[in-house]
Every structure is written in C-alpha cells, then in structure tokens.
C-alpha cells in the first residue's frame, strides 16, 4: 500500500513539474512581436486613411508586467499632403497584452 501511494505521489509531482514549465519567449522574439502588434495597430485602423499615411515601427523598449507589456516605441511616419511628401519620427507609448492582440496607446 505504501509503494502504491508513493508511486502515485511521484507520478502526480512529475506531472505538475512538467506542466508548470512553460517555455519563455526570447527577448528578440518578444521585441519583434511587440513591433508587429504596434505596426498592425497603427496601419490597419478604420479611422485612419492608410492610403496617405504609413507608419513604421523602428524600435521598442518594454517592461513586462503581469498582464501586459508597457512599451515605448520609436515610430517613423511618412505621408503625402497636397502633393508634398513629409516624413517625421517620434515616440509613442502603449500597453500591449501578453497575447499581442490588444493594444492601447497611452500617448
């Protein structure tokens, strides 16, 4: 009876150990996913005419919180206004969910 109980506990503990070891993303993969999420947010919004303005995310600095990433982005914007090209680079900040699907701009 003791052998059966100890075998049962070993199996349960091994199962918990293997199921709790989640694979962490590499820093480069997280940065690329954050850039992609922000790029998708900026260039595919229904309220922005994307035929005249294009955004490019150049780099990202982020902090990983419990439920989201707090990010600062360097963004390049190119557009056409009255047959004249304009180009500017600026900073944007956003919170992005851990699954990279929800973006909320803070500035």
Describe what is shown at a glance:
This protein has two helices and four strands. It has 107 residues and is α+β, with helices and mostly antiparallel strands.
Care to describe what's here?
This protein has 107 residues and is an alpha+beta fold. The chain has one domain. It has two helices and four strands. Strands 1-2-3-4 form a four-stranded antiparallel β-sheet, covered by helices on one side. A hairpin with a 5-residue loop joins strand 3 and strand 4. The longest helix has 19 residues. The mean pLDDT is 87.
What ranges have pLDDT less than 50 throughout 5 or more consecutive residues?
Answer: none
Count helical runs.
2
- The count of β-strands is 4
Give the strand content: 35-45%
Q: Largest sheet at a glance?
A: 4 strands, antiparallel
Specify the structural class. Answer: alpha+beta
Strand order of the largest sheet: 1-2-3-4
């Amino acid at each position: 009876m003791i052998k059966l109980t100890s075998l049962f506990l070993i199996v349960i503990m091994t199962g918990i150990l293997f199921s709790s070891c989640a694979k962490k993303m590499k820093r480069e993969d997280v940065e690329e996913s954050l850039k992609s999420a922000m790029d998708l947010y900026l260039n595919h919004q229904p309220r922005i005419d994307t035929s005249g303005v294009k955004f490019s995310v150049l780099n990202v600095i982020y902090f990983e919180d419990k439920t989201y990433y707090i990010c600062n982005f360097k963004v390049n914007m190119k557009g056409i206004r009255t047959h004249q090209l304009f180009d500017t680079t600026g900073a944007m900040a956003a919170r992005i969910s851990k699954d990279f699907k929800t973006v909320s701009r803070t500035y």
